[in-house]
Amino acid sequence: MPLEVDGKSYETDEEGYLADLSQWDEKVAVALAKSENLDMSDSHWEVVNFLREYYSEYQIAPAVRVLTKAIGKKLGKDKGNSKYLYELFPYGPAKQACKIAGLPKPTGCV
Amino acid sequence: MSDAEQITKKFMYINRKAPYGTIYAWESLEVVLIAAAFDQDISLAFIDDGVYQLTKGQKTEAIGLKNFSATYRALGDYDIQKIYVEKESLETRGLTLDDLQHLVYEDEDDDYAEKDSIKLVSADELGKIMEEQNVVLSF
Amino acid sequence: MSMLHTVNKSPFNNDALSKCLQCAQPGSSILFIEDGVYASREGTTFTDSVKEALKDKQVYVLQPDLDARGMNSSLIDGIKTVDYSGFVDLTTEHDSVQSWL
User: Fold this and answer.
1) pLDDT tens digits, one per residue of A53-93
2) How many domains does chain A have?
3) What was the pLDDT predicted at B100?
4) Which fold has domain C3-100?
5) How confident is the model over A92-104, as a mean pLDDT?
6) DSSP SS3 for C53
7) Whole-complex ipTM
8) Distance CA C14, CA C101 (A)
9) The domain B10-138 belongs to what CATH superfamily?
10) Where does residue C41 fall: left (phi above 0), alpha (psi -120 to 50 degrees), or beta otherwise?
11) Domain chopping of chain C, boundaries
12) A57 domain residue, yes or no
């Protein structure tokens, strides 16, 4: 089902992940978050932007364990733990945050 | 099951194919990233054309394929610390370690010091390391 | 009649290059593409046979495939790089094409 933002249509896969990474922008992110029943706060943006940087550097979306560790290193121990990340993204930080970041589903995520 | 009770096996992934021309290299990398979640003792070996997977400076825009050479640099984050490159394979291809990416991991037992993941080994040394493995997977 | 030979396999795990070099006639051209580009590097065990071919044949390599594989440096002297449109030109300039797969 395509995602509609400001009258523009974006192709997604059957699970709602954006088909074309390069079409992503902040408006698309907000719409993707809405489809997950999430309102984007600064804390959400911090994780989403981190994921986009990680993807642009390594060409993969990190596994949850790797994401948690890397967030802890970059943003501090109070954020680098699964409790904090699951509060932001109840259906899984890797899965849900990746979708909002316009990235493919993390490798190995079912 | 607690960590202490968990049985850890030695897994080695053997890579013998060049990237891009066939799908083996990328498939292997994906399997490695998935398997890394299971806290096993993982090592990677690059022999024959597999050494080409690790070359520096890959730029794939013009051939329209994903440049997954960047992903090898994430292996340290996945706690993969043993990457064996076979010496003879490099030599017959006119390559040295300097032609390969510099891959590192952080050693938790040594105050997170950054250490080299790549170890240059002879075919004979690699053969001995292969014999120590519980599981060997070939790509 | 002049022929263009293309080789798309690494010389190290397939004998396409070796057979191509045995068959290719003086005045013909050889183009390395895909994993075939590994043959264009100086200092490999195939360098001498490629240099031998350069004495009476043109040898080309596809630049995008070199770039993808990080093989831009240490090209054997005398090998010319071509882009995709150069590839097309080569196929039209020759009477026929043999693809060593």
Assistant:
1) 999 999 999 988 899 999 999 999 899 998 999 999 999 88
2) 1
3) 98
4) Hypothetical Protein Ychn; Chain: A, (3.40.1260)
5) 91
6) helix
7) 0.91
8) 9
9) DsrEFH-like (3.40.1260.10)
10) beta
11) 3-100
12) yes
CB A84 within 8 A of CB A92: no
Interchain proximity B73–A58, CB inside 8 Å? yes
> How many contacts (CB atoms, under 8 Å) link B and C?
73
Pairwise CB contact (< 8 Å): A63 & B37: yes
Q: Is residue A36 part of a domain?
A: yes
- Res. A109 pLDDT band, cuts 50 70 90: low
Is the residue at A48 inside a domain?
yes
| pLDDT > 70? residue A42 | yes
When pLDDT is averaged across residues C15-39 and rounded to a whole number, the result is 97
CATH of the domain at A67: 1.10.10.370
Residue A23 counted as domain residue: yes
Q: How far is B113 from chain C (nearest CA, A)?
A: 29
Determine how β-strand A3-5 pairs with β-strand A8-10.
antiparallel
Q: Residue B68: its chain A contacts at CB < 8 A?
A: 59
CB contact under 8 A, C41 and B94: yes
Distance from C-alpha of B35 to C-alpha of B16, rounded to nearest angstrom: 19
CA distance B56 to C70: 6
- For the cut 80, the answer to whether the pLDDT of residue C1 exceeds it is no
Residue A108 pLDDT class (50, 70, 90 cuts): low
Taking CB atoms and an 8 Å cutoff, what residues of chain B touch A70? 77
Of B49, B90, B51, B16, whose CA–CA distance to C10 is shortest?
B49
Q: Give residue-wise pLDDT tens across range B74-87.
A: 999 999 999 999 99
- Looking at every residue in chain C, the average pLDDT score rounds to 97
Asked if C70 and B60 come within 8 Å (Cβ–Cβ), the reply is: no
Could you write out the three-class secondary structure of chain B?
CCCCCCCCCEEEEEECCCCCCCCHHHHHHHHHHHHHHHCCEEEEEECHHHHHHHECCCCCHHHCCCCHHHHHHHCCCCCCCEEEEEHHHHHHCCCCHHHECCCEEEEHHHCCEEEECEEEECHHHHHHHHHCCCEEEEC
Reference A93, options A75, A60, A66, A74; nearest CA is A66
Structural domain containing residue A17: 3-100
